[in-house]
């Protein structure tokens, strides 16, 4: 049987980096079931034409026809974005509709020695937000952040091998920049997780290399951590690595660990060698050139 993968590039550089992820999956050949890609609509441009950012058809096809999906990013073509009447983020709606409650964002630096300078995972609560889980410090907002803290501690009791430490969010950012190696897994409410993972991305060179999956009990969506990068959109400068790594994470989540490792090794080799890099990493290569270098190694 085939592996049915929904593709939702949405807007901006999503249309440049999601095809790169598709090619990386295709390059795996017979190490995964034959991929079958299903193109799906969503995003701000779709909203401008049809008045809806996430069409019902996309949601239904994801639920009924797809085994997994890749999402690019949606944007308002400007940053910082302004509120547009009637528009709301399709990925936020998707996370809720499909109960993808965990956003897992590994941030790993690569180095020639093989010992990464940074190696941590931000686990971001994914289906709630500021009103509910609360973005604040439990020393100040004791009820809401306090609840988050107590919930994590309650679950942690079932896993005695795991050592739990705590850090208030402001000093966590400080510590992240001074001693990133003290962190292994950071579990955070929605907004803190968003901010911490962008901050951690700076430590490994670029937002363009940091992947994520949106995971629930029944479905998984790969998604780069970055946004639509309006400053470089359409210039062939977008780094495809975050999306390609997201595809690998998605495959590992589905049980295709060897296939995922093949993609990840190819990416790491290209990054360590450093000959074919996009401008965010100091190189001169295009999105397509980096993708081709990775495909060759897969
Ligand atoms: P951004 O992540 O788009 O860009 C921040 C900086 O990182 C920019 O300098 C950009 O050029 C660079 N960058 C990002 N991805 C890159 C890549 N693949 N390769 C090379 N450089 C890359 O964040 P920003 O500017 O705050 O947001 C832009 C738009 O994206 C906004 O409209 C925002 O709403 C939207 N956005 C959408 C998301 C989603 O749909 N999941 C997530 C984050 C932002
Ligand atoms: Mg973000």
Automatic annotation (TrEMBL):
SUPFAM superfamilies: Isocitrate/Isopropylmalate dehydrogenase-like. GO terms for biological process: isocitrate metabolic process; lysine biosynthetic process; tricarboxylic acid cycle. It holds the Pfam family Iso_dh. Keywords: Magnesium. InterPro entries: IsoCit/isopropylmalate_DH_CS, IsoPropMal-DH-like_dom. One of its GO terms (molecular function) is homoisocitrate dehydrogenase activity. Residues 4-294 form the Isopropylmalate dehydrogenase-like domain. GO terms for cellular component: mitochondrion. Belongs to the isocitrate and isopropylmalate dehydrogenases family. This is Probable LYS12-Homo-isocitrate dehydrogenase. It comes from Serendipita indica (strain DSM 11827).
